[in-house]
Amino acid sequence: MKIILDNISKKYNSKWILKNFSQEFSNNLYGITGLNGSGKSTLIKIIFGYISPNSGKVIYYNKDSIIENSIGIFSFAAPYQHLIEELTLTESINFHFQFLNPISKINKEDILNKIELEEYKNLKIHDFSSGMKQKLKLGLALFSDTKFTLLDEPCTNLDKNGISWYHNTIDETLKFKKIIIATNNRVDINRNDTTIIDLDKIKNN
Question: Count of domains in the chain?
Fold first, then answer.
């Protein structure tokens, strides 16, 4: 599957965040980089249809056939994404996987082990640390059976062990999907096979 952005432009009030931006996403791993305000998060949200561009088109292709909507194509994780705080960890996992299936050969019961939070399975999400919440968001997104996973600043709030877990999980899940990462922190995209899209360079050309 691939995604084509055709002359995407987006502005907030009178400020253009993206202008006439075109890009094909067909490789396995992308890193969207740039300074704060360069449009990284805006671009991620446009890709999966959370917001619409002012002009231009987002086209989803699967085996050269156009897909009319993005339902079931994407999973997503970001520090500003909300979890249901009243649920326990187990309940949160069960709720999420009512709507998406886990990736191949993984059951939803395995996810607790995969995200390394087994001892907190009965703890409510509102009692989690910020790092634990971020790990859960990443785990739910990466272990979901979707064509693309979109990650915005994925290592935010993660400690050294969490960052190591994140990279290992990218390695494990990349064989099942394509991953697009928006970040201004190179530790998030510390892989040689990452296709880098530098929004600062694009705007200066």
Answer: 1
Residue reference for tokens 């960052």:
163
DSSP-derived 3-state class of residue 1: coil
- The domain that holds 129 is classified in CATH as 3.40.50.300
Residue with tokens 């971020």: 134
User: What's the rounded Cα separation, in Å, for the pair 16 and 112?
Assistant: 42
Separation CA 180–CA 184 (nearest Å):
13
pLDDT tens per residue, the chain (205 residues)?
999 999 999 999 989 999 999 999 999 999 999 999 899 999 999 999 999 999 999 999 988 789 887 778 999 999 999 999 999 999 999 999 999 999 998 988 899 999 999 999 999 999 999 999 999 999 999 999 999 999 999 999 999 999 999 999 999 999 999 999 999 988 899 888 999 999 988 866 6
* Secondary structure of 79-147 as H, E, C letters: CCCCCCCCCEHHHHHHHHCCCCCECCCCCHHHHHHHCCCHHHCCCEHHHCCHHHHHHHHHHHHHCECCC
Say if CB 174 and CB 29 are below 8 A apart.
Answer: yes
Give exposure, 8-34, as e/b (b: 16+ Cβ within 10 Å).
bebeeeeeebbbebebebeeebbbbbb
φ, ψ for residue 56, nearest 5 deg: 95, 175
Domain range enclosing 114? 2-204
